[in-house]
Amino acid sequence: MASVGVAESEVERPGARYAREAADETYLRRGTAAFWRANLAMFLAGCGIFSMLYSTQPVLPILSHQFALSPVMASLSVSLPTAGMAIAMLFVSSLSEVWGRGRLMMISLLAAALFQLLVPIAPNYTALLALRALEGIALAGVPSTILAYLAEETDKTSYGFAVGLYISGTTIGGMSGRFLVGALSDHFSWQMALLAVGALGLGLALAFIWLLPPSRHFVRRPFEPRALASSLLARLRDPGLLLLYALAFLVMGSFVTVYNYISYRLMAAPYHLSQTLVGGVFLIYLVGTFSSTWMGKLADRIGRRQTLWIGPALMLVGLVVSLALPLWIALLGVAIFTFGFFAAHSIASSWVGRRALTGKAQASALYFFFYYTGSSVVGATGGFAWSGLRWPGLVLLLGALVALALGVAWALRRIPPVVAESEPASAEAAGEAALA
Q1: CA distance 309 to 417
Q2: Half-sphere exposure of 21 (CA within 13 A, CB side)
Q3: Which is nearest to 118 in space by CA: 130, 103, 131, 104?
Q4: Helix axis angle, 239-267 relative to 327-355, nearest 10°?
Q5: SS3 of 45, please?
Q6: Can you give the pTM of this predicted structure?
Q7: Helix, strand or coil, per DSSP, at residue 301
Q8: Binning pLDDT at 50, 70 and 90, where does residue 223 land?
Q9: Which residue, 153, 164, 378, 430, has most beta carbons within 10 Å?
Q10: CA nearest 311: which of 342, 267, 272?
């Protein structure tokens, strides 16, 4: 029986697409030059998105001092672009149906890089926030489209690995952008640091344009607002997708909040770290590079239902360990937390692409809507927990949210798969029922 919200007529014959992929060499498959060109392009796109989107995160204490802001107000330079991205995703995903996946991603990356280059010369904090919000809106075309592109163009056996590589790019971008900003702001200025990130983003956008292979399986559709609303509502009627969206909100909100306020903790007593050393803390993102790819492959092998809960469980352990006073133990806790987050995100995001048999772009857009809404809402409100009880207050708030995410991951184990995912077509696809 088809999943809730998916009409029987919309469901492809069980295993039909997988059998077709095996015979159709136009699908991107591991080991081919086209696959690696596409995935390098996606990797670079992930780097560009996260290096720009969270570029102000390492300098939040500097912005607080420069503009006489509370931690909550300073965090708006992170929350507003993610909020703009979240809202815009619901609409720009449909533009990819008209313009094409690749074209929309190219325009998005270029526009975001130009806004990032303007941020350092903003005359005041209000203008800076406006430019950051526009940057987030511009970036919306990439994450809302990229999973749909991979789901359409990549064969089944390579899809989880491809998503893992893209998410690895987001970890590298998140790490390198934040480290670059931390180091340059310490030795030059925060304006110079943000300008450097804009130049990096522009270079990555140009490389993406050069590398990305054209779509082979994209079917252009006219923009129909009523059809968009209907497609979005249909995705919201699937209980499996709803749980994945809830998990995205909880884990991303918790993740961003940790990194929003860790700079305040490490620059204060008893650590008194420099801005360069605080930027170096973002090297912890390297564990996410390994986590997302490794867990993506593990989920392909033994199933998403059996692996998704591991991410939130590790995040909870990491939060508890981060309460320790010795610096190396506290940072170990942050590393465990980071590993768990990227494990959960890699599995959940690829699950959305597989579960949505139709309306893949809208399904991905809704996933990232909740994902970045979590970043905005929890990231900003976490400032109140920090202001009240400092790090223990933050851990108390986030511990409750991550425990809820663990419950959501456990509930997903009992959600029945959709038809095309529950009946694999070949021995190569054995166990595919568990991958829904």
Answers
A1: 17
A2: 23
A3: 131
A4: 160
A5: helix
A6: 0.76
A7: helix
A8: low
A9: 164
A10: 342
Fill in the amino acid letter for 113.
A
Alpha helices (H) in 54-100, listed in sequence order: 60-66, 71-74, 76-99
Is 263 in contact with 385 (CB distance < 8 Å)? no
315's tokens: 């995040």
Q: Determine which helix (DSSP H) or strand (DSSP E) holds 420, and give its type and residue range.
A: helix 419-422
DSSP string for 166-200: HHHHHHHHHHHHHHHHHHHHHHS-HHHHHHHHHHH
Mention every residue, 6+ apart, whose C-beta is less than 8 A from residue 207: 41, 44
Three-state SS at 154: strand
Nearest Cα to 240, choosing from 362, 419, 407, 415? Answer: 415
- Say how far apart CA 317 and CA 130 lie, in whole Å: 37
Using alpha carbons, select from 335, 329, 298 the residue that is nearest to residue 314.
335
Element (H, E) at 250: helix 239-267
User: Mean pLDDT, the chain, as a whole number?
Assistant: 82
Identify residue 228 by its one-letter amino acid code: L
User: Do residues 18 and 425 make contact, with C-beta atoms less than 8 angstroms apart?
Assistant: yes
Phi-psi category of residue 383: left, alpha or beta, with phi > 0 → left and psi -120 to 50 → alpha = alpha
Residue length of the chain: 436
pLDDT in tens, 384-394: 998 889 999 99
Containing 238, the helix (H) or strand (E) segment is none
Spatial contact of 177 and 54, defined as CB atoms under 8 Å apart? yes
DSSP 100: -
Residues 6+ apart with CB under 8 A from 296: 160, 161, 163, 164, 167, 346, 347, 350
Which residue type, as a one-letter code, is found at position 398?
L
pLDDT digits 0-9 by tens, 69-93: 988 899 999 999 999 988 988 887 6
The answer to whether 276 and 187 have CB atoms below 8 angstroms apart is yes
- Token pair, residue 226, equals 């009523």
Encoding tokens for residue 108? 């998005």
